[in-house]
Design brief:
about 475 residues, 14 helices, 2 domains, metal-binding, Aminopeptidase, Acetylornithine deacetylase/succinyl-diaminopimelate desuccinylase-like protein, Alpha-Beta Plaits, peptidase activity
């Protein structure tokens, strides 16, 4: 029997029952702890109050201590310098990123070490009017808990906390498995200090297995192991045509206002069917499960009569092909519109990059396209760039097999290997810093979560099953 086959056998029934019983019994307190985290508006973006992120980090540190797994002095709140930034914020003249929580329990007796990653910061709530309940007041409706961060990613944080509590209840101080709990504080703001943090804390972060609880599941009943992630490129695009605004009646039809070239330039990024039309952006070739365009229309909430964009298999478009989205524009509002030609217009561009293509290469291709297609000689500026590489998971390792077994026992269904159209750029950073570690990308979301959107919610059945699966995985590794 091979090593993989040996350790893919079923978990000891008595241990399995004990873990399940603990997770079930602790679920009300787990939901209460999650609700308390949701009440903290820990938006990490620079325009928001950093005191809320600090309060969130302190709450997570208290939760880490509550597991019983870590000594009190082994739980720390850490801030690292933003890479490449010279803004003065500390005694060394460094701008510091948002606070992360780091807790370490060293391995003993030859057992492996597992890093558990999640993030405690959240997206801004957006327009409060679009929320059916207050975004930072957790609200239970049916089997879902609503609130900003209820799923992404404070439910990921609580998955780690609750699974550690369950494991500690079974093993106590006899737990020889090494545990590193790393809860980041600025994932939603680009993980600006992430690389510095990895370098500074490398000795404490080193692990054999890394579990990233920040992804999706196939459904509320079927778990997933994420095996591919698209990269991302974002930037601000500004076009300027006039030194100042002018009367549209006097000069319109002859003088180009900035909106004309902006509209035409943005339209050049896509073919007539909505496929990306930028030379140099590549696609990744791999088989995907079948999904119809009708299913896509339902899942993505297309209005009646609206057609999907792109070509090829639906999931290939979402997982393995590039996409370009205009996520914001700086223009006068309709309410404040006047009869003037706009001298300057800006847009925020988000590019999802197919796994396998370096983000810097994709960024260069998009910039070449924009400069080659800008109309009317408009002055073009690209600023505020950010980029992160995609990732392809090696599914041949023993950790994936252990995770499959744990998910089957925790969910009652086999896990689906899936790609994700979104980006988690720091995963490639983890792989670069710890090349020998096996990375498992899991999560607590489901197709109805609406992460980043109004009315974000966490399915409590998914949370329950995710905690059970992770507790089983940790127990299996502890006895491996």
């Amino acid at each position: 029997m091979t090593d993989t086959e040996q350790h893919s056998t079923a978990t000891d029934p008595a241990l399995l029952d004990a873990l399940r019983e603990h997770v079930q019994g602790a679920l009300p307190s787990t939901i209460a702890d999650l609700s308390a985290l949701v009440r903290l508006p820990s938006v990490s973006w620079s325009a928001f109050d950093p005191a809320n992120v600090r309060a969130s980090a302190e709450a997570v540190a208290d939760l880490a201590r509550s597991t019983g797994v870590f000594a009190d002095d082994a739980v720390r709140i850490v801030r690292s310098a933003v890479e490449g930034d010279t803004a003065t914020a500390d005694a060394d003249g460094r701008e510091l990123g948002q606070p992360a929580v780091l807790a370490v329990r060293p391995a003993r007796n030859g057992k492996p070490t597992v890093m558990l990653y999640a993030h405690h910061d959240v997206q801004p709530q957006g327009d409060d009017a679009l929320w059916e309940t207050p975004p930072f007041e957790p609200t239970l409706r049916g089997d879902r808990l609503y609130g900003r961060g209820a799923s992404d990613d404070k439910a990921g944080v609580m998955t780690h906390i609750a699974s550690l509590r369950a494991v500690h209840a079974q093993f106590g101080d006899d737990l020889d498995l090494g545990i590193v709990l790393f809860v980041e504080g600025e994932e939603e703001f680009g993980s600006r200090s992430f690389r510095t943090f990895l370098r500074e804390q490398k000795e404490h972060l080193a692990a054999d297995v890394i579990v990233v609880a920040d992804s999706d599941n196939w459904s509320a009943e079927v778990p997933s192991i994420t095996v591919s992630l698209r990269g991302n490129v974002t930037f601000k695009l500004t076009l300027t045509t006039l030194e100042h605004a002018s009367h549209s009646g006097m000069f319109g039809g002859a003088a180009p206002d900035a909106m004309i070239p902006m509209v035409r330039l943005l339209a050049s990024l896509h073919d007539d069917d909505g496929s990306v039309a930028v030379e140099g952006l590549t696609s990744y070739e791999a088989d995907v499960p079948a999904r119809t365009e009708d299913e896509l229309a339902t899942d993505a909430a297309l209005l009646p009569g609206v057609r999907p964009v792109g070509r090829g298999d639906v999931l290939s478009r979402m997982w393995f092909q590039p996409s370009i989205t205009v996520t914001g524009m700086d223009v006068p509002s309709v309410a404040n519109a006047s009869n003037t030609l706009l001298p300057t217009v800006s847009a925020r561009i988000s590019v999802r990059v197919a796994p396998g293509q370096p983000a810097t290469e994709a960024a260069a291709a998009v910039e070449r396209h924009l400069r080659a297609h800008v109309p009317f000689g408009a002055r073009l500026e690209i600023s505020e760039p950010d980029a992160g590489d995609g990732f392809l998971v090696d599914t041949a390792g023993w950790a994936v097999q252990e995770a499959r077994t744990a998910m089957r026992e925790g969910w009652g269904n086999e896990a689906v290997e899936q790609g994700i159209g979104g980006s988690i750029p720091f995963v490639s950073d983890l792989a670069a810093e710890f090349p020998e570690a096996q990375i498992l990308v899991t999560g607590v979301e489901d197709p109805d979560t609406r992460a980043h959107s109004p009315n974000e919610s966490q399915h409590l059945g998914v949370l329950h099953r995710a905690i059970a699966s992770e507790a089983i995985l940790l127990a299996r590794l502890a006895t491996r």
